[in-house]
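Q: Make up one entry.
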Amino acid sequence: MARGRNTPDGQLDLGFNRGDDKRLDLSSLETWLWDGHQAQRQPYLISIGDRAEQIAHDFEQRQITAPQALEAVEQLIGELRDAESERDATGLSPEAYAVFHLLKRGGIADSKKVAEDAKKAFAEYPHWRASARQEQDVRRLLYKSLIDAGVEGEVDVATQLIKLLRRASS
């Protein structure tokens, strides 16, 4: 079976197993995310991909053991599957779902409301990636929504969100 691809039953084959050899190959996950352009279509995958890369790095540097790495990857895969189901259920645009996913992971209670506001901002200012003026308008609306949600450090959070979404388009 090809690694880093969806299997006939819709599961993602990541090319590692928990068998006797305790092999860990995260390159297939990275290939699926980056080379397959999944992250461009679904920006929330960037944060998951970053964490997968960190697990691989920690494992290569012997900061974590193979069983710890496998457990971390299994948790990440569970989060990926949960996020895919949740994404479908929310009806949010890919960019707005990335906002929702990142804020939810950060423990923000009103993450859905902020994501809905972000969806409206991205629709109202569709050229925000290319137009400095439109990006300012999107940021302003994000700041307002984050403040209304009681998020501290709204400027830093909005900047993090914009950077994540820009990475998805590059």
